[in-house]
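**C-alpha cells**
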Amino acid sequence: MAKAHAGSDDSTSSKKRTATNGRATPPGERPGRTSGRATPPKSRDINKRYTAPIPKSVRHSPRWFGPVLLALLIIGLLLIVGNYVGIMPGGTSNWYLIGGLVGIVVGAMMATQYH
C-alpha cells in the first residue's frame, strides 16, 4: 500500500489542472496584484485627509477686532513719534520705543487674522 502525501487527496491528485486560455491572471492585471496600483485607496483614508472649508458666514471676526487692531497700530506709531519729538512725559525713554514697537507688532499680527 502506497503512502499518500499529507494534504493531498488521491482523487484530485490524479487529475491534471487545465487552464481555459493558458493564462494565470486575467488580461490587464499584473501577477500578485489586484489592480495596477501598488496600494488601492481606502475610502476611510481619503475621508481622513479631506477637511471641508469653513463657510464664509462662520469666518468673521468680532466687531471689536477691527477697532482694537487700528488702535494698537495708531498708539504704537504715536508712542514712537512722540518719543522722538520729545513730548512724552518723563522725556525720551527706550520704554516708549519698546511699547510702540510692541503695539505695532501686535496690531500687525492681529491684521493677519482679521476676516
Summary: Residues 65-85 form the longest helix (21 residues).
